[in-house]
């Protein structure tokens, strides 16, 4: 068997692994720039309402299935190999899309692509969280969100460029380009290390310690950080073995709090309504009177804004509490929704035949200040989302689980995300037709509810080791609103190990007694 050299630089590992996020981004905007083109509307007979909702939400439908099976697959074959397995379905799904003859085949191809996204969106954050140092975990996991956003931006402007190609070759060319990031991901995965925590979980202790040392301490297994992390991993694993197997462990004792937090944070990310803007800003732009290339470029700029502000948060993510960003982010997004909905409600005219012939857009916002306000606050909503819920919801969901539940738990969290993504994908196009501006008022109310939920139920996880989070969600843990960032117990453990080493000469590090049986 060919043995590939292994990369242990965590930033480089993250760049390769998060190509899985780029697949997600590519598939999102593979429709955004195309759904308003004449070629698409003509070939698929101007799909609207439920049909367009089914096309748009097909990705989420497949992702629900992928998320449901991601945990067991990841626990069986490992985080890295689960991502490789998912790539197979991306290649098949993209082939079906490129060759589709009707919207039924298009939906089928998007479902297959969604299956891949369901696995990668849940297991890439798990993989990154398990190889990162506690104080760098947020900045590493946020690379996944940046990869998604770069994928969205790149694919949107590919679609925009392909719109100038006559006939169905326009969208087929755009969809065919989705092969490229998958190809590079397949090439890069064999060079990545396996998660040391997964290796420990399946009893490969020697390999786990060596991998942990190479990632954290340039291969020094006697490094205090390596020893401290290994001891925490083994302590938690022994406790989880006593908890037993099966689904009941997700709801026993304090685990139900973690299950609730991991799944609900992903649900709230969708219920915040940001994807209405991300997926359908082209519709909002046309409501505001922008047409043709102006509407397309205006919509595309939001994706660049998305990347810029998530990039800014990449610098500060581990310096700011997760709770703070979630609570104030939800309130800020709610304010934007209320402004957009209020302006649309007070300054529009009905266009029953559809603006520009698009049956999904049945109101037109008055030109001038009202239209400019709608566009401005749509951008502002994306800015707030990029700084807060977009990256933090994925980070928080990856942090709350224990070692024995992390892969399946994260797949449950992603499943929650995709169930709501699917529901909203089906709901939004008909809602644009039937309740128009009131859609934004609904999302504004949901954002306010989300901020209250975050305050009462989510303890702070920033700066904690994955094992310390165990205590945060236990029956004896502190009230969520009394928790603070940092204060990691791992630092004290490292200091204790260093102090011990100064009094005795180590003969070399070995796993704690009994670990070979774990």
UniProtKB/TrEMBL annotation:
PANTHER family reported for this sequence: MAJOR FACILITATOR SUPERFAMILY (MFS) PROFILE DOMAIN-CONTAINING PROTEIN (PTHR48022:SF47), PLASTIDIC GLUCOSE TRANSPORTER 4 (PTHR48022)
Family: Belongs to the major facilitator superfamily. Sugar transporter (TC 2.A.1.1) family.
Protein name: General substrate transporter
Places the protein is found: Membrane
Record-annotated membrane-spanning stretches: 12-37, 49-70, 141-161, 173-192, 267-288, 300-317, 324-344, 374-397, 409-427, 439-458
One of the record's GO cellular component terms: membrane
Keywords assigned: Glycoprotein, Membrane, Transmembrane, Transmembrane helix, Transport
InterPro entries documented for this protein: MFS_dom (IPR020846), MFS_sugar_transport-like (IPR005828), MFS_Sugar_Transporters (IPR050360), MFS_trans_sf (IPR036259), Sugar/inositol_transpt (IPR003663), Sugar_transporter_CS (IPR005829)
GO molecular function: carbohydrate:proton symporter activity
All copies of domain Major facilitator superfamily (MFS) profile, residue ranges: 13-462
Membrane disposition: Multi-pass membrane protein
Lineage top rank: taxon: Eukaryota
